[in-house]
């Protein structure tokens, strides 16, 4: 069965855009029991249809695609379509003569291709194949996320006395209904701690809803948290459920709680005291059985003293306070955190980077970490993207990491680390200094340096790569000895 060239879209319905719409008759006879079929003749008109129907698939004739890409490229055309339908799959239709070009277009971002003449069974096969591939990718993403969530709780194995106290308090409060107030600097792990409390609670199988209060405009705080009725204000064209209603029987995490408006404070107080709230513009009592965890990086007590935060709400939130120490006060956890974040990056990306260079770990232990754990994770991610070897090397990290504060003197040992961690850092430092001295002595000559070290040139190259040492940096530094 032959289908003339055109564009086809599919979302429970098949929408064909063909130069000759009478070619649809055979397709309609074959597929009308499964799909509703409609037709059109122009790409521009198809884009307008996409805005309304949001198809999952679009079948594009290769000549129409070439014409659209004449003044740009295929990726630009795909991007235009994807802006209208972000989750759309694009399939190219081509004659056998243009098959090489169709394959090229698939490499440019199309999901698949079909050759003319098209037959219904092949059409179904391509659709089902893309659906299965999408499902498999979604399951893989889910499994990766599950692996990360499980690995994330390795953070509980802390060496910091302060964090051990924090985790003991969390275990004590998790199974209760008490409201928890998390305090600490930005990036110190309040979001992770809130999720941990939920995971350890009796509500772990219910929803965990996170609300970033500081990111919501003042005029919309009440609507976001408690919902609104149709016509409650300009733009309220229909009823909207708030976060408290969505989180029913679960946990709601109110981050940056100190930023909410006075009217929202009153409503929040009512929810905590009575378990009841109203949507904006509504009078119906809505019951709310929700565990509240709040967080702030500013002094909520000072806000209360300055009359910027209600005293009664402050006391209701501050039932069980938990203060998270900044990273600079728990540096003994940095090697483990770095290892954990590196494992996370390896899980989500195709690289396999085994470790962090000893000089980088040394700099980590000396750095003040104003951005706390979030800064550590971001710095590692940037270095990971840049790294081309199996170890995160110093040149891929910010210069200020190695210049502020001054490096510790050789021989200085961090007594908070385990023997294994100290041995790794110290042996790495000794190995680096030894190779640096030999390369300097031998003017960077590989054969001479390997002979002096009593190792093969292959072993030397491997060690130089590990320690980011380059022979070009040792040229003409002096005459070789012996």
From TrEMBL:
The keyword Transmembrane helix does not apply. One of its GO terms (biological process) is regulation of DNA-templated transcription. Keywords: ATP-binding, DNA-binding, Nucleotide-binding, Transcription, Transcription regulation. Residues 156-385 form the Sigma-54 factor interaction domain. One of its GO terms (molecular function) is DNA binding. InterPro entries: AAA+_ATPase, AAA_lid_NorR, CheY-like_superfamily, Homeodomain-like_sf, P-loop_NTPase, Sigma_54_int, Sigma_54_int_dom_CS. This is Response regulator with CheY-like receiver, AAA-type ATPase, and DNA-binding domains. It comes from Desulfobacter postgatei 2ac9.
């Amino acid at each position: 069965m032959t289908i003339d060239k055109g564009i086809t879209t599919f979302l429970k319905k098949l929408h064909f855009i063909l130069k000759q719409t009478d070619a649809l008759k055979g397709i309609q006879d074959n597929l009308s029991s499964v799909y509703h079929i409609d037709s059109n003749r122009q790409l521009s008109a198809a884009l307008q249809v996409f805005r309304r129907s949001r198809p999952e698939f679009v079948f594009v004739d290769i000549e129409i695609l070439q014409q659209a890409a004449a003044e740009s490229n295929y990726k630009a055309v795909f991007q235009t379509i994807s802006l209208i339908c972000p989750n759309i799959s694009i399939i190219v239709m081509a004659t056998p003569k243009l098959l090489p070009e169709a394959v090229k277009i698939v490499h440019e971002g199309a999901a698949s291709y079909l050759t003319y003449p098209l037959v219904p069974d092949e059409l179904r096969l391509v659709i089902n194949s893309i659906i299965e591939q999408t499902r498999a990718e979604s399951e893989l993403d889910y499994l990766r996320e599950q692996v990360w969530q499980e690995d994330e709780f390795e953070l509980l194995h802390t060496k910091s006395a302060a964090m051990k106290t924090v985790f003991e308090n969390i275990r004590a409060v998790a199974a209760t209904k008490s409201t928890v107030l998390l305090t600490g600097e930005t990036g110190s792990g309040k979001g992770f701690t809130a999720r941990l409390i939920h995971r350890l609670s009796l509500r772990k199988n219910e929803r965990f809803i996170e609300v970033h209060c500081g990111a919501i405009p003042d005029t919309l705080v009440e609507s976001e948290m408690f919902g609104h009725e149709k016509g409650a204000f300009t733009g309220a064209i229909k009823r909207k459920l708030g976060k408290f209603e969505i989180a029913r029987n679960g946990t709601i995490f109110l981050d940056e709680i100190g930023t909410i408006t006075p009217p929202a404070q009153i409503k929040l107080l009512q929810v905590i005291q009575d378990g009841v709230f109203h949507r904006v513009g509504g009078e119906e009592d809505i019951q709310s059985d929700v565990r509240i965890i709040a967080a702030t990086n500013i002094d909520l007590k000072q806000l209360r003293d300055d009359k910027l935060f209600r005293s009664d709400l402050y006391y209701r939130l501050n039932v069980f306070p938990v203060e998270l120490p900044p990273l600079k006060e728990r540096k003994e956890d940095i090697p483990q955190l770095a290892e954990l974040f590196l494992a996370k990056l390896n899980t989500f990306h195709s690289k396999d980077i085994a470790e962090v260079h000893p000089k980088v770990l040394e700099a980590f232990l000396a750095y003040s970490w104003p951005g706390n754990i979030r800064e550590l994770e971001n710095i590692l991610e940037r270095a990971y993207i840049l790294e081309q070897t199996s170890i995160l090397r110093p040149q891929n990290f910010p210069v200020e990491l190695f210049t502020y504060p001054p490096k510790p003197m050789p021989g200085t040992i961090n007594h908070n680390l385990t023997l294994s961690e100290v041995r790794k850092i110290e042996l790495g430092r000794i190995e680096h200094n030894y190779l640096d001295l030999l390369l300097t002595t031998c003017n960077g000559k590989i054969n001479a340096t390997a002979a002096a070290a009593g190792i093969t040139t292959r072993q030397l190259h491997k060690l130089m790569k590990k320690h980011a040492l380059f022979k070009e940096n040792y040229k003409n530094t002096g005459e070789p000895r012996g």
